[in-house]
Write a structure and sequence with these properties.
single chain; 269 residues; alpha/beta; Rossmann fold; 2 domains; six-stranded mixed beta sheet; four-stranded antiparallel beta sheet; globular; binds adenosine-5'-triphosphate; ABC_transporter-like_ATP-bd
Amino acid sequence: MIEIHNVQKSFNGNQVLKGITCTFETGKCNLLLGGSGTGKSVLLQCIVGLMQPDIGSITYDGSVFTNNKVQIRQEIRRKIGMLFQGSALFDSMTVYENIEFPLKMLTPEMTREERRDRVEFCLKRVGLENAGNKMPAEISGGMKKRVGIARAIAPNCTYLFCDEPNSGLDPLTSLKIDELIHEITHEYNITTAIITHDMNSVIEIGDHIIFLHKGQKLWDGTKEEILNAQVPELKEFIFSSSLVRAAKKVDDESEGGLAAITEGESTSA
Ligand SMILES: Nc1ncnc2c1ncn2[C@@H]1O[C@H](COP(=O)(O)OP(=O)(O)OP(=O)(O)O)[C@@H](O)[C@H]1O
């Protein structure tokens, strides 16, 4: 579990994070939801140590991360896997080499054969067992995300951070990437945090959702609870989604629209 307590961050007098307190639960997809400019990326950067909060604390499974000794921060960092928005693969390396890269960096004690077994396992787990020799330029956006996921989990990460994993993908590919992240999270009991403003993802994989608005946490709960949340800013955000509006229309006209979605029946599409 990652515990975030009263995290504040300002830039030149502009307070971007106004005292965020929340938890990312173990073995769950924790979604950081909110509109543009609400501070999701800044919060994520503070959590992984790319940025220092002005005030507040971040604790990983009981180990304090903020302002702790370099060695302890490095130990925590080694357990973090990142899936970047644009996948951020190394263009000059093959898919195999991209996935092997963090193993070489983080686990120098592994033999070449052990690395090969791990890379092949991860490639298989993300459904790319035949793509190891391809270059990033030769594969689709969805495949690149899969490689990014394989690279993130290769060193057996305990924590997985995904920055808008669906950006640039068509709806069906987005759904498959969401499902893959969700499966891996539950299978390996990873604490996963996902930045998103996609209501589809909320409905598909939102085990725990944290809604940010103007640098504040206004609500958190599950995907089953979110449609009944009585927070005006959250309601406005939810019903700005055309998917939810369409489902509500069905709900109003008959039975089962929104309920059907929250029960996951939309995945059959
Ligand atoms: N390094 C920085 N220096 C100054 N201001 C920054 C910096 N990083 C972020 N900001 C500001 O912080 C605010 C929140 O930005 P952030 O990127 O966290 O939003 P977001 O919720 O992730 O938005 P989006 O969904 O559009 O990516 C913005 O006003 C942004 O301009």
